[in-house]
Amino acid sequence: MTSSLPLRLGLTLWSHPAWQSEFYGSGTQASERLAKYASVFHTVEGNTTFYASPSPSTVLNWRAATHDDFRFTFKLPKSITHQHLLRDCKEELLSFLRLMQPLHDRIGMWTIQLPAAFGPEHLAQLKNFRDWFPADFPLGVEVRHLAFFGKGEAEKALNQWLIEQNIDRIIMDSRPVFSALPNTEAVIDAQQKKPKVPVHAIATAKHPMIRFIGHPEIEANLPFFGAWLHKLPEWIAQGKQPYLMIHTPDNDFAPQLAVQLYQQLQQAIALPDLAPFPVTPEQPQLSMF
Q1: Rounded distance between C-alpha atoms, residue 87 and residue 66, angstroms
Q2: Do 168 and 219 contact (CB within 8 A), yes or no?
Q3: 51: Cβ contacts below 8 Å, ≥ 6 apart
Q4: For 189, how many CA atoms within 13 A lie in the half-sphere containing its CB?
């Protein structure tokens, strides 16, 4: 069944202790956080699988905590994308996909995040790697090598292949975080780790994903989001269903930023209202805007 949501809004993670009082509500156990997160947001990045594979029981718990219309966009393990660079890892990939099988119908896309060292000379490896997936598996690719942002032959070849294969190109918009003064540990860490790459707003398949890496001051993000207020409705009008993933340097107020940006989008295109944050009546949601 295809979701009727015009756009999917999500964050980089679903479990964050800083959200206890203003998002989940007091008394929420860690095991309850995913269900509460999924009551508001439509998707999540799922970075956890990049660093370690979950246990089979954890995979089942994730399924039990989410509803049929929720979508994960799990990253493939770092060992596959960064250590093997997509080579000589077919059995490891298939083992990971078997482990995650209970969630296959709740996967929005499998994210192939490639390191900056993965350049045009490695494109054949990506093409071969794609053949290891079933044809109907939704895939998204995030590249970081600057040659893929140069609007030259390397980028054209990548984009054309993604279009032919119906694979989404994941778009990193890190302009907001790099506009922030490096005056906190969280901002310094984000500016050291996040790629500073040009923003090329291209939809190579049906579900273009925007990873919006926000400024720590919520209002400072609005000028950077202006272009997306035009591009996202344009994609939706074309029948696409974009994914909008919101980050902040420490993610403490990522839920609030996501809501504010979504409300901005609602002024440009008809989108369903988000459910309120699941805080308890004793601890009402604090207004950030």
Answers
A1: 33
A2: no
A3: 78
A4: 8
- Which residues pair with residue 9 across a beta bridge? 244
Q: Structure tokens of 50?
A: 């990049």
Q: pLDDT for 242-279, tens place per residue?
A: 999 999 999 999 999 999 999 999 999 999 999 999 98
Paired tokens of 178: 């790099």
Cα atoms in the 13 Å half-sphere on the side-chain side of 25: 14
The string of pLDDT tens digits covering residues 31-73 is: 999 999 999 999 999 899 999 999 999 999 999 999 999 999 9
3-state helix/strand/coil string of the chain: CCCCCCCEEEECCCCCHHHHHHHHCCCCCHHHHHHHHHCCCCEECCCHHHHCCCCHHHHHHHHHHCCCCCEECCECCHHHHHHCCCCCCHHHHHHHHHHCHHHHHHECCEEEECCCCCCHHHHHHHHHHHCCCCCCCCEEEECCCHHHHCCCHHHHHHHHHHHHHCCEECEEECHHHHCCCCCCHHHHHHHHHCCCCCCCCCCCCCCCEEEEECCCCHHHHHHHHCCHHHHHHHHHHCCCCCEEEEECCCCCCHHHHHHHHHHHHHCCCCCCCCCCCCCCCCCCCCCCC
At residue 75, φ and ψ (nearest 5 deg) are -80, 145
Map out the domains of the chain with their CATH numbers: 8-266 (3.20.20.410)
| Token code pair at residue 96 | 């990971």
Rounded to whole angstroms, how far apart are CA atoms 174 and 152?
22
Give the Cβ contact number of residue 181 at 10 Å.
10
And the tokens for 275? Answer: 């459910």
The answer to whether 230 and 240 are in contact (CB under 8 A) is: no
Neighbours of 58 (CB within 10 A): 12
